[in-house]
Amino acid sequence: MSMISVRGLVLTIGLALSLxxxxxxxxxxxxxxxxxxxxxxxxxxSAIMGATREINVWLPPGYADSDRTYPVLYVLDGGQxxxxxxxxxxxxxxxxxxxxxxxIVVGIASVDRRNELALPTQDPELIARYPTQGHxxxxxxxxxxxxxxxxxxxxxxxxxxxxxxxxxxxxxVVETFLKEPxxxxxxxxxxxxxxxxxxxxxxxxxxxxxxxxxxPRTLIxxxxxxxxxxxxxxxxxxxxxxxxxxxxxxxxxxxxxxETHATIYHGAALDAxxxxxxxxxx
Length: 282
Prior knowledge:
By secondary structure, the chain is of the alpha/beta class. The protein has nine helices and eight strands. It has a single domain, classed as Rossmann fold (3-Layer(aba) Sandwich), CATH 3.40.50.1820.
């Protein structure tokens, strides 16, 4: 083959390769990525609990640019992998839509729920199943003596407080309302586990109510379609409220027959927000 033929063949192959080779595009710039900050998480050393505890805080969007004070909603089971995000989301929705007042949401994480949220039981089966149970009084001291002072000294609070919880946390809410009603202005108990200890707390509620002062308080109770074990002690509690609650207490019980224990919390919490933090009529 002649030199000219070889060169022609090389040119032909080169041209064919250039026509079939992919066209190089300009490199796509990297997509900017920033974290979404929902709130702040604090590791609070606790002498009462003997450990460092997780406290999560959501502040209203205008907090940093104002000198206003705000009510505080304390949420039990308030860890980042518990109920903090969906309850703080309700607060944010109310702020954005202008349907509820701005409020600081404080999530108090739980670790051993039956230890921290349940009162002592005499039921041998429950004791055997949950050997660490029954220290709600200690957890209540932790909230009153360590969590609340931490929040009040660090943030601009108005002095208006509420406590919210569901299930065992709802049981803790009811127990706190009955035994230490001065701790909060309002109490929200969603599907409280009043069956614990055979419904003893509900049966004792009349005596506790008679011992309370007439200071203004709010108690919001709600329960889904959760069977007689949950309903029966709630009926006892509401009967005692009707018979023994003092005029200063504003209380309500809302049955939610279309909800279950697994589905009730979000909607019930939204209703509580609208009641506790309604925007004043203009």
